[in-house]
Design a protein that fits this description.
With 646 residues, the protein is of the alpha+beta class. The chain is built from 18 helices and 18 strands. It is 27% helix and 11% strand. The longest helix is centred in the first third of the chain and has 41 residues. The structure holds 2-acetamido-2-deoxy-beta-D-glucopyranose (NAG) (3 copies).
Length: 646
Amino acid sequence: MPEGSRTRGFCVLLRNLILAVLLYAAIFGIIEVSRGRSVRAKGKLGIPALLNKSGPANIVKQTKSKVTIKFGGSPDAITINPHANVFNRPASAVAPKDDYLGLRPHVDTEADLHLLVEECRGTYTGLEKMRNVFDCLQFLANGEDRYYLLPEKSDRASEQDPQHAEYNDADGHGNTLSKYVPVDKAQKPSKESIGTCPGPIIPYHTYWTGPATWRVEVFIKAYLHTQNLACSRLWIWLDSDKNPNAVEDMLTRDALFARFLPLVERGDIRLMPWNFPSRIPLPKNTDGTDSISYYKTPSKPNALGETKVADGITGDADGQQWLVLTPKQMTFLPVAVSDAVRFVVLHIHGGAYFDMDVLMLRDMRPLLLPKEHSFAERWAAHSHPGDYNTAIMSLTANSSLSSYLLRGGVRMGLNFHPRVIGRMAWKDGRDQEFLMLETAAFDPIWTEFNWDREGRCTVPCLRDYSAAFKGKAGAVKDEWESFDRPQLERIGAGTTVELRAQKADGDSGSSSALEAPSGRTHHRRNRHKNDDLRASSAAQGKQAPQDGFSPTSDEEAELRQAGVVADYILEEDKFPPNNRTLENFFRGAWTYHIHNQWLKHPEPSSWINVLEQAHDGFLAGRRTNPYGEKWDGPPVAPYNYWPEFV
Ligand SMILES: *[C@@H]1O[C@H](CO)[C@@H](O)[C@H](O)[C@H]1NC(C)=O
Ligand SMILES: *[C@@H]1O[C@H](CO)[C@@H](O)[C@H](O)[C@H]1NC(C)=O
Ligand SMILES: *[C@@H]1O[C@H](CO)[C@@H](O)[C@H](O)[C@H]1NC(C)=O
């Protein structure tokens, strides 16, 4: 029968198709897995390993146009073009203006958060401006005089009583001082001291699992580059449910994090163990707007004197109320722990939370100082008033709102997905006290990425999240399409590039061009040991996996000596320097959200690499931050190099 055979034919076809898909998935899966491996294997590279062998002669191979190096611990040799590589590429084709934000806002400056919302959103129901990210950024970049204000003296944060501070230890003395240090007496940070803050010290929180990676590094450096350090503290919460020694490991065994230990010592960074609490304190006078229905009569006290006062809420003998997680909830903690961490941490400690893939570009303090500073971000350009994104979030500790959100998430089975929590808040009419800032403020390409943009593209015009990592000439099409200010003048080619590491005195930095590899001189090696600020990866030994590598200045000099690094030739460069500078990187936005991209490494000359160079230049004392300030802190090692982009 034609009818039946056609059906059979179709079935066979379908079966073959499914088999093909399965086979493809299997093969693709295997490729992905082995790819993942090779990425990991690469993590063991280190130039010091090269130097510890019998000398570069047997590891460096030269042909006319390139040099291959076999680094210790790597299965594959790496090809270096001596005329265009990370060691001799000019940082930029233009002279960057580093202090493009002008003076840092006064320490008591407060942002008008409602104005920021309305100016970039339009009305609550109309959302007339929500999709116009360009206009919002213009407002953020040029409208400070409208949305920043310095309150009357008596209303300023620095004039308030530390004993009534919103934060624990807001004065650095356990809230025992009767006054904050006056603005003109405040001490700037120095190598040994974090300085004093005229006004409350605000905690910034983030969360991480496992050893530090480049992502942790770029997050911390962006923080150091932009924030008011005497007035902020960075709390890094480390998952200690999975690894009870997480904090200890990062403090003592983490090669990458080692560069930040002086800042742990100075007090900038606190590593905090995160254990999911089985009970969370609630403020005493919950105001009843939380749709919590308390029992008319609490249960009889148990042996510990605790009574059940509402569904899931226990009161103890001292009258403290606790949100109690059931044993079942404690056994099946959510997969998305980090979604919950931010609500718990902000409820208990207050301040602001940032996902680790968020890079700070401006001082956050003015957003956090207003009395009512509870906010998060919109989920792209979604029009629902409950569609929050909590990658960046601020809540007042022990507030009615923080209690409400927390209890809601627990009641929904520990579901803290921002859009679930957000819709709950909206249903209960509480979304308007939890401000929703538009994407321009924190994640300026999200709207573009979702094809929801109206008006012009942003500056730079990046259409997806990988673009910021791309460094090849022409790889990002039309990135300047919305830029209409005068072009930056290109500086002449042939600019000499100094050793990135601390410049060695004498001639060890000169490129003695393609000298024979045997021209290496041994006695140089120890000469600058003491003033070398960076831990060499050899010293770090076989510790936590490290993706990049970081040669010391002496080692870098040796590579030059060995002819691995010669004179730079622009025409040979795959990643030629360009006119990207932070000044034109989403000007006005407080942060840029990398948005996952967890396996990506920034290519040389990419936007993210430009950001890295700005960080390193600042931390090495060569450049200022966007506020024209010099780094006064302890030395911090620069970013490692990526083997694949040497
Ligand atoms: C060099 O390698 C040898 C053997 O692998 C080792 O014993 C020695 O300590 C290393 N030297 C340095 C300076 O790392
Ligand atoms: C919030 O309340 C809890 C319990 O009373 C307390 O331990 C915590 O320190 C408070 N947080 C702040 C920032 O005051
Ligand atoms: C950078 O160069 C591009 C291409 O030449 C140009 O369109 C753009 O305006 C320049 N941007 C700046 C900031 O100079």
